[in-house]
Structure formats: structure tokens, C-alpha cells
Design goal:
four-stranded antiparallel beta sheet, alpha+beta, Immunoglobulin-like, ABC transporter involved in vitamin B12 uptake, BtuC, 12 helices
Length: 429
């Protein structure tokens, strides 16, 4: 009988994951080369009173001679299908505007870039009373957007922090759980035609199930083999690469919107403008995070989770089923990450690297708040969201560099308080 050591098991698992990732990458590249997806330009027409405008024709053209037309429906929605990626000019036919509706302030809208997915274009019908010219107005808008973004990444950060606190695992595949929630919800909603709200709930449940499979299929066997945390971290990197390419095969490389709430007009609250889906996302994230915090503080499982996070050996000697607690943490953490993916997909659309692109900010939030502390992850996420958005007020700070502010904040805080904002000092040696 052959006895396998923990490191041999890790090597075998990592090799299998690597081969799967390589095969997925080649298949994904072949898929992208063979079938470059067509795209669409879409939008939503509202008058100055906020009412939808129906029966208006919108035309999209490009330099190659393409011309396509769409007409707004009773809800004000319109869409023009285009042959593929390219740069288009989008023009509203003012002759089709109903009486009393002002002409758009900018028409046509030039240089609309489509990259194989639905691109949203909004016409402003008439001059609005308020424009964001003041720095204070811009700061107010960016602050609210930062809080919204912070609440969404907090869902994933809390799950990642709970997993780290109970197992010590730095899971680089956590971003792919975020992507899984968005992709599976999109598939249920768009491909199967299930209403979005029902698909979202099913997507969260399936994300929790995905966490169950992750723990029972991979991480629990590695823990039983007493595999080192560094080796497990490397396995998580391989798993992340494999899942990214699997998503690419089955979903494609394009960004795709959900079948509902793709375009919405903003509601104005003083200097701040938010769409209904933005408001709903903030409320849902805040309520779920509050319930998760209360569960950690008030329920038996929450107290057991905190005990395992503090000292697994002592928790086990006290009669706590550590493996059961870890399994529950994986299910809940994956469910929270899946919800974060759904809410991100509402604002950014769904694409295979949705979670991977936000993983660095999620890690920054967890580290900033304090490793292994769920409440620290929440505080860190809000600070990261605020700094990411408010940093764009700095002259010369382009959108591509906006994450720098959050990472600089992380460096400064860790220099002053290495354990993070809500973390506890630990003795080394």
C-alpha cells in the first residue's frame, strides 16, 4: 500500500488544477478566436419630469457603412444591435420626439466604443437645472458611490475574513466565488428566462453550495493531511486560474447585462444622483451585513465561529465541532460573496474576471480592517470604497489609477497599526 504525504497530495492536486487551467485557457482562446460575439447599444429615454419617452428612433452608424435603428418602447428602453466590436456614432431622430419633449443637449453622441457586449448610452433630453460643477457636489456624489461600492465589496470581504479566521487559509480563489454568483445568476436569468429576483436568490443559494463543494471536495482533505498553509495558498492560486478559464469557456469573454434593470434613470437627492438599483444594492448589502453581524454576536453558531477563530484547539477541547463550524463558514462566506457578485453585476455587467479584478481591493479591505475579524473587514471595505472614489478628485488622478488611493491608505495604516484597524496585537516567538 502506498502512503501519500501531505505535500505529495498538494503536488498532485496542483498539477491537476494546472492541467485543467491550461486546457481551459487553450479552449477559451479557441472560443474567442472562432466566435467573436456581436454587441448592442442600448439606453433609456426620460424627459425632464422623469417620465419615459416612447416611439423615438435612435440610429447607430460606423465608418464601415453600418447603419442600425432602434425605437424606444413604452418604458423608454431602446436597443440597436451592432455587428461587433467597433466605434459608433449614436444619433437620436429629433423628428420622432413627442410634442413638448426637449431635444437632447448632445446629439449625435460620437465615438461610442462597443467591445462585444451591450454598451449603454443615455441622451439628456433638455437642460437640467443642476450640473455637477462644484467640487463639493462632486465630492458628495463620489462619497455616496464610494459607500455603495464599499458595502458591495464588504460582502465578499467578510466571507474571506471569516474563512481566514477559522482556517488560516489565504484564499486567492475567493474572487472566483464572487464571479460564480454573478455568472450563475446571469445564466438563470438570461438563458433560462427565470425572473431576475428569483434567479438572484437561486444564485446566492448555489454560491453557498459552491462553498460547500469547495470545502468538502478540496480543503477538508488537505486539512486532514495537515497540509501547510503556504501550500494551500498555492493550490488556491491554481484553482483561481482554472476557474477563470472555465468561466471563459462557458460564458465567453464579453461583458453581459442581466435581463432586467440594465438601464435606469437616476433619482436626484440634492447634489447626489442614484439609480433605483444603486439604492436597492446599498439597502440589501447593509441589511445582509447587519444580519451577519448580529448572527456572529448573538447565535450559538456565531459564538462558536468566534471561538474557533480565536483558538481552534481550545474550541475543540471545549466540545465545539470545529469542522462543522468551518463548513458553515464556507457556505455562508460563499453565499455572501455570491451576493456581492450579483450586486456588482448589476452596476458593472457580468464578465469572467469580475471577482478577480476586485480581489486586490477585497484583500486590502480585510488587511486594513484586521485579519480574521469580520467587523474589521466591513470597516476596511467602507474605507477602501471611499478612497477609491474620492481619489479621482485629485488633479491628474485618472480612473485607471483610482485604486492607488486605497492601497496607499493600507500602507499608511499598517505602518502605524500593523494589526489593522480592529485587529489585535499578537506575540511572535
Amino acid at each position: 500500500m502506498v502512503h501519500w504525504s501531505g505535500m505529495r497530495i498538494v503536488a498532485l492536486v496542483f498539477a491537476c488544477i494546472g492541467m485543467l487551467g491550461g486546457a481551459a485557457a487553450m479552449a477559451g482562446a479557441a472560443y474567442a478566436a472562432e466566435a467573436e460575439p456581436a454587441g448592442a447599444i442600448q439606453g433609456f429615454l426620460r424627459d425632464l419630469a422623469g417620465e419615459p419617452v416612447a416611439g423615438v428612433d435612435i440610429m447607430a452608424t460606423d465608418a464601415e457603412g453600418f447603419s442600425g435603428t432602434g425605437t424606444s418602447d413604452d418604458a423608454g428602453r431602446w436597443e440597436v444591435e451592432v455587428p461587433g466590436p467597433g466605434t459608433y456614432a449614436v444619433e437620436l431622430d429629433v423628428d420622432t420626439l413627442p410634442d413638448g419633449v426637449a431635444e437632447p443637449t448632445k446629439n449625435p453622441i460620437e465615438n461610442v466604443v462597443v467591445t462585444g457586449s451591450a454598451r449603454t448610452v443615455l441622451f439628456s433630453l433638455g437642460e437640467r437645472e443642476r450640473t455637477l460643477t462644484s467640487k463639493w457636489d462632486q465630492a458628495a456624489q463620489l462619497t455616496v458611490e464610494g459607500l455603495r461600492f464599499g458595502l458591495i465589496i464588504a460582502l465578499a470581504a467578510v466571507g474571506l475574513s471569516l474563512i481566514y479566521g477559522t482556517t488560516g487559509l489565504t484564499n486567492f480563489a475567493h474572487g472566483e466565488i464572487v464571479t460564480f454568483g454573478a455568472v450563475i445568476t446571469w445564466w438563470l436569468n438570461v438563458t433560462l428566462g427565470i425572473p431576475f429576483l428569483v434567479a438572484a436568490v437561486l444564485g446566492i443559494v448555489l454560491s453557498g453550495s459552491f462553498g460547500f463543494v469547495n470545502d468538502r471536495g478540496l480543503w477538508k482533505p488537505l486539512r486532514k493531511r495537515q497540509t501547510g498553509l503556504i501550500a494551500m495558498m498555492i493550490v488556491s492560486i491554481g484553482l483561481a486560474l482554472a476557474l477563470q478559464n472555465i468561466y471563459l469557456i462557458f460564458f465567453g469573454g464579453a461583458s453581459r447585462p442581466f435581463g432586467a434593470y440594465a438601464t435606469q434613470a437616476g433619482l436626484e437627492f440634492g447634489p447626489v444622483s442614484l439609480t433605483p438599483k444603486d439604492i436597492a444594492s446599498m439597502v440589501i448589502a447593509a441589511v445582509v451585513l447587519t444580519l451577519a453581524g448580529l448572527a456572529l454576536l448573538k447565535t450559538r453558531m456565531g459564538k462558536a465561529t468566534r471561538a474557533v477563530s480565536d483558538n481552534p484547539a481550545l474550541a475543540a477541547s471545549s466540545g465545539i465541532d470545529v469542522e462543522r463550524v468551518i463548513l458553515v463558514v464556507w457556505i455562508v462566506g460563499a453565499g455572501l460573496a455570491g451576493l456581492g457578485g450579483v450586486l456588482q453585476g448589476l452596476t458593472q455587467q457580468v464578465f469572467p474576471l469580475l471577482g478577480a479584478q476586485s480581489l486586490l481591493l477585497i484583500f486590502a479591505a480585510v488587511t486594513l480592517g484586521g485579519l480574521g475579524t469580520a467587523f474589521g473587514a466591513l470597516v476596511g471595505s467602507l474605507l477602501v470604497g471611499l478612497f477609491v472614489n474620492l481619489s479621482t478628485l485629485i488633479p491628474g488622478m485618472t480612473p485607471e489609477l483610482k485604486n492607488v488611493g486605497a492601497l496607499l491608505l493600507l500602507i499608511v495604516v499598517l505602518m502605524v497599526r500593523p494589526q489593522g484597524i480592529l485587529g489585535r496585537r499578537s506575540r511572535v516567538g
